[in-house]
Amino acid sequence: MRRLFLALPFALLPLALAHAADEHDHDHEHGSLGAHVHGVARLDMALDGRTLELELDTPAMNIVGFEHAATSDADKATLAQARETLLKPHGLFSIPEAAGCTVTKQKLESPLFGDKDDDGDADEHEHSEIHGHYQFTCNVPAVLNKLDLTQLFKSFPATQTIQVQLVTPKRQMGAEVRPSNPVVKF
Q: CA distances (Å), 101 to each of 97, 114, 142, in order?
């Protein structure tokens, strides 16, 4: 499975280069998005046999509305709510029940989710990211023929565009998805 994700950037490099020319680049420590652009997230999807993997990379601003360490009660509550939503991938990515997918692994990473509440590392990050990795085992993977991101846009309205790259046994493709057209068919 890992080699699908390694091959993906090379397969879609022309698309990425064309898009990168349109964006202004910021210094970015994590390297997960080529450029840290508020409102823009990236989602990689790979389907290999019965294994479905999704990787979401997004500026924290898109998810919680801030990129500093959560110190106020309001920020902590916002962060906790966002984390809870991100840990429910079935609803977030509208995975059809008929596919019989069960979560086998999920992991959220961000400087904002760190254990340090006072002068933690998150204070030093100008551009905090949130990275989510989700792995499913699907009993009926043939049912998976589209990716509907409606709920992700509804849950996190500051997200205006999601750059989707996907690899399935049938095709490799890239697409830009917006709230007005939140579905990628494959």
A: 7, 29, 11
